[in-house]
What we know:
The protein has 205 residues and is an alpha/beta fold. It has eight helices and six strands.
Amino acid sequence: MHVLFVCNSNVCRSVIAERLARAFAADHGLPGLTAESAGTRALVGFPAEPLAAETIAGLGGDTDGFTARKLRPEMVDRADLVLTMTEALRDQVAEIGFGAAARTFTLPEAHRIAKVTGAKSIAALHRARNDLAYVGRENIADPIGLSAGAFLEIGDRIAELLFPLLGALAPYHQAGHLTDERRGLVIEPRPARPLSAFLAAQRGR
């Protein structure tokens, strides 16, 4: 499962989520779980904001090799799941890639649906979203320019939402094999060739 995290500048919220997802994959022995991040108005080439980097380190991740990147259609195309930090970003990303709306959620939204329904697949999350419409806003505030305490609060919030979600959706491996219970992620339907390869070929014409 490849997850794309999206925020505005790609130096705070989305990089926190990306690096925590990578740490989760390493800690749980899930080599098939990968993550990247990008921003719609990215500070391209910049490292993670220093307080964001401290937050990531405090939560067990690292920012080695990270530089901010601008969101591009091919990133959306190759993602199995796109998690944004705000509803506005979710709606923006949903318009970028073919079929992107069905696999794009805010992080709080995806967590809520998985928790309520017990969904184990991205398709199940999507099927349930209209039945579980939420009246309030499901955004993660941008801590840029705020105190170290604000960054820690946002980091904790992201971790609290992200780790249970990944635990529900990420493939369950034991000694490198799926268990007989077939727990974990099932993306429905699964094409024979990656959608990203198809879309890339279409763009090349």
